[in-house]
Amino acid sequence: MAIKAVFLDRDGTLIVDKIYLNDVDKIQYLEGTFEGLKILSDLGFKFFVVTNQSGLARGIVQIENLDKIHAKIKDDFAREGIIISRFYYAPHMTDSGHFSRKPNPGMLKYADYDYGIDFKNSWMIGDRMLDVEAGHRAGCRSIILEGTEKVEESNFKPPEYIAKNLLDAANFIRNATKTHSQHLK
Ligand SMILES: [Mg+2]
């Protein structure tokens, strides 16, 4: 059976965007991250982190540091009972247009190949419109976290919701999920 997923951008969504983060000791979680993921986990969603990391192509981020950063995030969440199924990252240049790099849906599609995703009942959460667009291209609904980018300045289709933080996003998904299941009765 296909699983329902929440795809999570990393920088500016789970953790503070340090711009080409390359040091595991500089991870700083954003407000509402743990609370939000707990709610979504209890709703039965599986988590996938999907992160553009052009710092790798630029030589600013080293793969061994990226691995350490992702291992630390995974451990920090696991200690709170939050399981990240997999981290996907796109190492390609900003202008590469690579299928893996958001706004393209490659990383979400790989999760589908690896796990089987019910995209219609899945969500993408990020702080940029390219996250929103990647979610839409895969067939998910998308939520943007406010503060980084203005929705109205983008040519991409707007998100289904603009959230204050991950906790707000999770509450929106909980309500949307409730409405949906009531509708089915
Ligand atoms: Mg981001």
What is this entry, summarized?
By secondary structure, the protein is of the alpha/beta class. It has helices at residues 33-42, 54-58, 63-78, 106-115, 129-138, 166-184; strands spanning 5-8, 46-52, 84-90, 123-126, 141-145, 161-163.
Secondary structure: elements and pairs:
Elements: E1 5-8, H1 33-42, E2 46-52, H2 54-58, H3 63-78, E3 84-90, H4 106-115, E4 123-126, H5 129-138, E5 141-145, E6 161-163, H6 166-184
Parallel strand pairs: 1-2, 1-4, 2-3, 4-5, 5-6
Helix pairs in contact: 1-6
The protein binds magnesium ion.
Order of helices and strands: EHEHHEHEHEEH
Shape: globular
Average pLDDT reading: 96
CATH architecture: 3-Layer(aba) Sandwich
Number of helices in the DSSP assignment:
6
CATH class designation: Alpha Beta
Rg, nearest Å = 15 Å
Structural class by helix and strand composition: alpha/beta
Side by side, the strands of the main sheet go 3-2-1-4-5-6
Small-molecule binders here are:
magnesium ion
Binned strand content: 15-25%
Give unreliable regions as ranges. none
